[in-house]
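Study this protein:
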Amino acid sequence: RALSFKATGWGRLSGVFLTGIFHTDRETGEAFSIMDMLWNTNDNLMELLSGRYTFAREVEEYRRLKFDGNGITLQDYLEDSYASPGIKRAIHQTIRIVSEIQKIMKAPPKRIFVEMAREDGEKGKLTVSRKAQLEELYKKCSEECDGLFAMLQNESEGTLRRDKLYLYYTQLGRCMYSGEPIEIGKLDVDYDIDHIYPQSKTKDDSLNNRVLVKRQLNAAKSDTYPIGGDIRKNMRPFWDRLRKNGLISKEKYDRLLRAVPFTADEQAGFIARQLVETRQSCKIVAELLGRKFGDAAEIVYVKAKNVSEFRKDQRLTDSGEQLQSSQCKGIRTIQDPLFVKCREINDFHHAKDAYLNIVVGNVYHVKFTRSPANFIRQGKEPYSLNRMFDFDIVRNGDRAWTAGSDGSIAVVRRTMGKNNILFTRRPAEKGGGLFDQLIVSKGNGQFPVKASDPRMAIEKYGGYNKLTGAYFMLAEHTEHKKRVRSLEAVLLIHKAMYEQDPERYCREILGLIEPRILIPKIRIDSLVSYDGFRMHISGRTGNQIIFKGAAPLMLEPRWHRYVKNVVKYLERCQKAGKDPEITVFDGLTAEENAELYRLLTEKLEGRPYCVRLKAAAETVRGQQEKFISLSVADQCRILRQLLNLFAANAYSADLKLLNGKAGIGILRVSKNLKNLKGKSFRLIHQSVTGFFERETELSDEVSL
């Protein structure tokens, strides 16, 4: 039990829990320590820290009394917190950003929205092929499924990605509310997908909450729950059979059979799940921001899932009209490309997500306030969770949303179309291992196995390679009777020596003549500009400095949707171990691939990319005909590799399919700045938000 308690990460508060934090029983007035409760109840630590007990409140009160008015710094606060080192770095950066925004705005924020990220496993998890899953289940069914099984085997993976067709097979080709056989030829005409739990009450769009039914029965059911008693009575044997054969989950089965309406607490719970979700790092940030701004700013939590659904609810018709999903009944639409999140093109989606968190979070906050339970108990206002943005949202004069095509959504669309976004990285010193732990053979290596023993010479016993650089510095020194400048690494293993005597380090470790330090510390991920092409310092190899690109690629919104389709298809290829057939659901064509290839080529040939990626542009331009001759799958692979050339990382492109080679487009610059004659090479000092900048020219030469 003690180990279980320590594992929660409450750190230095363990002693407080054991000695000074108690829960007082409301009825008897008796006080219990947390150890008493762990011993005498079946509740685990997380249950004891829930709202059912007063332990969590006692801890917060203890921390408030400890920190308030005691001159505690942010570092002291984090040292006493339960955050990991990685989270502490993020928290430091968050507080710095908020402080600078306050300085720019000359006022504290009214509300601060904290995104609650999806739980582990909610995204990015591998799923079993729908067809393989159904085939396995059908083998366990009786002979009456033989006809359906034969039909299923003729279906492709692509067609089964249609939810209607997949539900058709999971329901053995029958309507879930009547049991009547479904005419597969009229699937899109006479049948609808119905949500068992109405979406007006809970935004559950999972397959566990969806069934395929006759259109008339869906219309008759409307938003009522539970399902009618006659349907439940007549269909139970069929549902039992589906459950027994694993064609529906226990959760779906229970939802179908339930005979009682939602309670007020359940409805409040459905709303609460849209509003709040707790994570340790977010709690710490919220607590710190609360201490910083007090009552001047409200802290509002926003679920990432709500923002994702808002993105998906923005639709585009065949004629190019932008609508919200509730306006699209019976209309063929796609997701509005303006709201498609495509990580492979650039990193602007982070800023746009932040903006949408404010939009969506403010609507939920104003509509339901902080207490969904009170909202439900009052029962004065109607609500529908799947139509939150169809009506004006106003409370006590605070307007969060104006409905209509000319209302708030028009402002959101204009903002999402902007790309004047500030992009920064956090410069930092590098720590960790001093070198590669694998000893190389004799005559090789950069550091002896045992530096204190002169007999352990590298020439005889080899040594360690790849010495870690903590950061860089700009040094001026003499070379061939000229004073030149170079960017030199400060090796982690010799960092103490450098910081004590920089010139000695330059002479003895780097072998520089008459060195003088011009800029003593240039951290990893510092921003530089090479003739207008921005890059972040990433590392070094030999006498060259490696960089990450800092010139985000910008494409029209329609290409965001297309590139996302490319990435999804390549993920399918990787999962299947082959190139699956390209269907209409993949949204890929050779013609559009060729158009995107030409567009990326033109981008590479234009500024600022041509400054550092000229060789890559020549390779790509010269192999255009070869690209067109490739299969659509291989074209997608090339397009994905080309996007690496624009990425804000130290990526390269593998263009072997274009008669090129791997490793194209790595951004390297000689550490000897004399080789940059005629070029501008500047160090850019950015504030944490990127709002303020100051430049220093690095490449000047001085003759003796």
